[in-house]
Amino acid sequence: QKNSAWWKEAVIYQIYPRSFKDSNRDGIGDLKGIISKLDYIKRLGVDAVWLNPIFASPNDDNGYDISDYRNIMPDFGNMADFDELLSQMHQKDLKLILDLVPNHSSDEHFWFQESKKSRENPYRDYYHWWPAEKGKPSKRFSFFDINRDAWAYDQNTDAYYLHYFSRKQPDLNWENPKLRQEIYNILHFWLNKGVDGFRMDVVPFISKDTSFPPIPPKYNGNFAYYYANGPFLHKYLKEMNQQVLSKYNMVSIAEGIGVNTEDVHFFIDPERKELDMLYHFEGMGIGFTPDGFKEANPDGYSLLEFKQVYTKWDQAFEKGWGTIYLGNHDQPRMLTRWGNDAPEYRDYAAKMLHTFLLTMRATPFIYHGDEIGMSNIKFDDINDYRDIESINMYQYLLDNGGDLPRFIKAQKITARDNGRTPFQWDDSENGGFTDGKPWLKVNPNYKIVNAENQQNDPKSILNYFRALIQLRKKHKTLIYGEYQLLDAINKSVYAYSRKYKDETFIILLNFTALEANFNIDFELAKAELILSNYGNIIKRNVLKPYQACIYKLT
Ligand code: ISL
Ligand code: CA
């Protein structure tokens, strides 16, 4: 049994504010829109909401390029709206987690505007500059830059600046203690307002070897792993914990890009006093082709690999506490990616995936819209995309004679905008998201897939999801109980037990569209069926397509 904490027992609901609910017809979701839906959120049974960045931003990367960390993006509202949101959430006993972007700011931030003015500017060392007379700096790869070069040349001071993401997202220089204090003060500002935690964007990347040597061969070109191993990373996390985080009742969650199972304990082992939780990326790469094209294997993914990854991570989180998610604003919809969005399977598959998320030993992060089974929009036309990643990649392929039809096809499965289409509230125009023109097209399946349809249907995905949350809350074994993989070699069924003292649950999940057998050493005839997405239809040792069952041994 682990030491308890609210965030270990919580279910966290992620909202992409731009896409949740528009209150003023400009086609962009906003804080007032979220306020108008708090009853809906509360009724889900979730405990906390994580909001993607809501701060002032020119939106080169939808708010991950912040120009003022202490103000609200005008598209989303103002500080009064924020205070209202926080106060109403707290009245409803909902916690609020904000998104800190500590690795980079917008190039339109005052700091960068100053920094680029001259080499002597007091803000010069808030960023990483490389004087051109030293020659071109050693290659760094950019996630979003068309030419994949993370060094941008700036004529004004004849120097290059570093940007791991877009050119409009210069990396902040954490080696500068002044910059670190700035970030800590930003944290104090929001924590003093009463927010309950922070998700920290690409936080493993903050520390850099400022001599910028060539990336050592042991990283084998895997630059994310190199970026995540900066020399003073853990020193800074400890400092931040000591100076800020430890002073509040709050939760800190690392976006764990580039972190593997061997290193995760450095971040979350409570004895080290750094961060509380981390979410890993290993699950997200499963079933992608290896050539970096961001393309899913046409034959699907290997459930064996999927099971190995989540089993390995259950162990890796041992010195601390885990997280689990199958989708977010950087990923396609979980139903399309890991389940099946065909009309005949949609309901079963969505419920099966939720059964997985809510019965693992880890804090579940549920991405808004997944609770009603939203799926990929699968755009045919590059002009429908809004995401810098897709647009820049397309441009790069266009300029270099790349395979554009292959790219458009691959994006239907993998593009981030698939997970960013507006929330589908009802079957009115634009799914009830806006009375204006939505910033990104609404998935046309909103006529069928929407929250209103599901609210009062006891068999809906939404109500199954709510029942799962209640079940998790009722049985602490589903939260803290030991996890054990069963029938490991089964290619269709993910089976595991959750055990605490004399209480044992058996979870059976068919990840395929075919009936599947399983083989476990427990006598299910004597067990109680607690929940299944097929009602009480149970066949001995066979699961229907995408069937999920939770048994309790008696
Ligand atoms: O989305 C990705 C690739 O499709 C990831 O590699 C992503 O860039 C990485 O997970 C970092 O993500 C975070 O920081 C980015 C931002 O674009 C993402 O939305 C955010 O979650 C830069 O701030
Ligand atoms: Ca709006």
Name of the CATH architecture of the largest domain: Alpha-Beta Barrel
What kind of sheet is the major sheet? 8 strands, parallel
Q: Looking at CATH, which topology of the largest domain would you report?
A: TIM Barrel
Whole-number total of structural domains: 3
Radius of gyration: 23 Å
Backbone shape: globular
Number of strands: 20
Domain Glycosyl hydrolase family 13 catalytic: 14-420
Organism: Pedobacter segetis
Family: Belongs to the glycosyl hydrolase 13 family.
Protein name: Alpha-glucosidase
Explain this structure.
With 554 residues, this protein is of the alpha/beta class. It folds into 3 domains: 6-105 and 177-463, TIM Barrel, CATH 3.20.20.80; 110-162, Oligo-1,6-glucosidase, Domain 2 (Oligo-1,6-glucosidase, domain 2, Alpha-Beta Complex), CATH 3.90.400.10; 482-552, Immunoglobulin-like. 27% of the residues lie in helices and 16% in strands. The chain contains 17 helices and 20 strands. The chain has helices at residues 6-9, 31-36, 38-44, 79-91, 110-115, 177-193, 223-227, 233-243, 264-268, 303-316, 334-338, 346-357, 388-399, 404-414, 451-455, 461-474, 477-480; strands at residues 12-15, 48-51, 55-56, 68-72, 95-100, 129-131, 151-154, 159-162, 197-200, 251-255, 277-279, 323-324, 363-367, 482-486, 493-500, 503-510, 516-517, 528-532, 542-543, 548-552. It has an 8-stranded parallel beta sheet with strand order 11-10-9-5-2-1-13-12. A 5-stranded antiparallel beta sheet has the order 14-15-16-20-18. The protein has a 3-stranded antiparallel beta sheet with strand order 6-8-7, with no helix packed on it. A hairpin with a 6-residue loop joins strand 14 (482-486) and strand 15. The structure holds 6-O-alpha-D-glucopyranosyl-D-fructose and calcium ion (CA).
